[in-house]
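Handout, section 4.2: multi-component inputs.
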Amino acid sequence: MATNLHDKAYELARALRESDEFQTLKALHEEVEEDDVASRMLTNFRNIQLELQDKQMQGEQPSEEEITQAQKQYEMVQQHEVISKLMEQEQKMSTVIGDMNKIITEPLESLYGSPEDQGQGEQG
Amino acid sequence: MATNLHDKAYELARALRESDEFQTLKALHEEVEEDDVASRMLTNFRNIQLELQDKQMQGEQPSEEEITQAQKQYEMVQQHEVISKLMEQEQKMSTVIGDMNKIITEPLESLYGSPEDQGQGEQG
Ligand SMILES: [Ca+2]
Ligand SMILES: [Ca+2]
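Output:
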């Protein structure tokens, strides 16, 4: 990779690390990690989500019991103040990363067109 | 998004656009676009690749005829000097983007662990 590209990528990573969005996420993450009950609740929730995702990717239908269990876990984590804040902050970070990626990949889209452009191209 | 993050993302996009890797890719892309025969050959090849991908994602087995057709098209584009250079350059660009993403997402991996770390975590 060209030196300038390398340097600019590191500068962006540093800006991300120093951003309010990341610092808030990091603090909430640590708060959950330090709380055994919260930490276990979140791990359990994530595992259930991953299992459901796996099933969907394999084209399997999750059972009613699994769906009910996932909903119950979701309500539990939503009611937990720190975990719900963490999940909200993860959503914000995901938006930031998405916006960053749009900016960074703009040069490539100028060559190949964005996915939306390609959709229009197929119809028109 | 924080102003600094925004600015740094734009600086990285500019560095990408100005990089040799991108400029070479752009020139090859334009060379193919301006050549009707090459352009049609590449579009045809990409469409066949996309159809095969679609089938794979839907869990369908492509027919022998489709596989033979895809191989023939692949050999044709490989033998075309400009298209084969373009595809080689796309591979290089893909590596650059991958390396960039590793650097940029390092802050998040420091929170969540890289996929490799998670694999080890499940076993250990
Ligand atoms: Ca188009
Ligand atoms: Ca681990």
